[in-house]
Amino acid sequence: MSALKIKKGSSRKSAYDLRDPNSDIIERHTLACVVDNEAGVLARVIGLFAGRGYNIESLTVAEVDHEGHLSRITIVTTGTPAVIEQIKAQLGRIVPVHEVHDLTVEGPAVERELALLKVEGAGDKRVEALRLADIFRANVVDSTLDSFVFEITGTTEKIDAFAELMRPLGLSEVARTGVAALPRGV
């Protein structure tokens, strides 16, 4: 592990300051980690991000192998290429982590997210909300005289666009699952 040398009198640097000064490109990456399904593993993974000042945009965790007691953690994060490489290397060193895949660079991948959106309104706003839901292929999963709850699946961008269109129509609550992703093909 290399150490960052700091000149005397200078302040400590964050992980984002380790980047190449000629490369300020911040990239979004989807990482998939296969881990032991045991207490404390998620806390260790999250602690890695928190302790080094890395941001997590989305986090999804579920057991994927009941017999092998394995879970899959899907993390969407941002950083410079050097920071992303550092995150992957540090994740790989955590003992209960079996595999770390960067789906963004390993080839084409499928990413989906599920969201529930509650829209409150009446009259024309209610009709417009239903029309937009039809265009976005969102399903009505609950309906009262005053509100709808829509279920929508798709890319993060699709869900963001749907939410923005629903905002002026009475969007009052949003619940999102986070990204689930798998590589395409064999």
UniProtKB/TrEMBL annotation:
It catalyses: 2 pyruvate + H(+) = (2S)-2-acetolactate + CO2. The keyword Coiled coil does not apply. It comes from the Bacteria. InterPro entries: Acetalactate_synth_ssu (IPR004789), Acetolactate_synth/TF_NikR_C (IPR027271), Acetolactate_synth_ssu_C (IPR019455), ACT-like_dom_sf (IPR045865), ACT_dom (IPR002912), AHAS_ACT (IPR039557), AHAS_small-like_ACT (IPR054480). The keyword Amino-acid biosynthesis applies. GO terms for molecular function: acetolactate synthase activity; acetolactate synthase regulator activity. Residues 30-105 form the ACT domain. Keywords: Amino-acid biosynthesis, Branched-chain amino acid biosynthesis, Transferase. One of its GO terms (biological process) is L-valine biosynthetic process. GO terms for cellular component: cytosol. Pfam families: ACT_AHAS_ss, ALS_ss_C. Pathway: Amino-acid biosynthesis; L-valine biosynthesis; L-valine from pyruvate: step 1/4; Amino-acid biosynthesis; L-isoleucine biosynthesis; L-isoleucine from 2-oxobutanoate: step 1/4. PANTHER family: ACETOLACTATE SYNTHASE SMALL SUBUNIT (PTHR30239), ACETOLACTATE SYNTHASE SMALL SUBUNIT 1, CHLOROPLASTIC (PTHR30239:SF0). Dimer of large and small chains. NCBIfam families: acolac_sm (TIGR00119), PRK11895.1 (NF008864). Catalyzes the conversion of 2 pyruvate molecules into acetolactate in the first common step of the biosynthetic pathway of the branched-amino acids such as leucine, isoleucine, and valine. Belongs to the acetolactate synthase small subunit family. This is Acetolactate synthase small subunit. It comes from Aliiroseovarius pelagivivens.
